[in-house]
Amino acid sequence: MVEPRAITVVFYVMAALTWTAMSAESVGGPADPTVGNYFTSTDDRHHDRRPANPVVEQPAQQQQPQSQQQQQEPRRFRHEASAVKVLYQTGSSEEELPVCEKWAVCSKVDMYQWPWVERQCRCPSGGPPCSQMLSPADGHTITDKTRQFKLCEPIKMLPKCRYFRDMAWTLRSEGNGTLQIVHCHCPKGSVAYLLKRQAYQTESKQIGYQYSFACSPQSRIRCQRKEPCRLFTVRKRQVMVDEVNTNALCQCPQQHACPSHHTDVGVIQSKNYSEENIRTYSGYCMPSTADDH
User: Where are the stretches annotated Disordered (predicted)?
Assistant: First the structure.
């Protein structure tokens, strides 16, 4: 049986190995016994730092323009983190989170289907708190497919990664959780893949693993007949949240489209890893309809 704390690292490594080998046969990887449990937030006070402005009554003719402006405001610039489910890597509150190291990911935002947030650590005192925006346009966000990695530091200070050579980020066990350190940002339009795995000795004299990810251009290879165009790795969290990793393998021919969701038409289940509560799916090119254009 795999320990519950090993599931998170196993999930990301299995998804990365799946993309690297372009086959579900390569999904796997040693479980790391020091990955922390996750809990659901029960106190939204820690996630909504908006000032409680007093309500000022205004004449009706002055309230109308303000209401129209709010309706026209793009969703991505609104503070909505307090309205989504928040999980904690360690403990069940902000106070129980460790202090972030430099360039560590303080929060992960999953935008695959319904937005949800996983808190990793809290930013050091004296500096800005971890961004709660659901938008990557806050100056502190690295994007990876449908996920956003929030940093305490501004990303404009990060160098740009070189394809296949530089490590974009590393993921390793640290205490009762995982520590993700960002080293550079991938060029626009690229994807991250597992570059290498290294074993190391933890403070408790156990063997842990560090996973390094690099950047690659998106594949422009045309899909062959009966070849999957996208792979999905799905893990059901304890709080009934689906954690999904997607990997595009090839481009569909003209007048065909690749499924973007693991429940879409053209997706079939590949393998089921019951101990880790992980399922894999393969998506195949489907004829495009008029609604797709």
Answer: 25-76
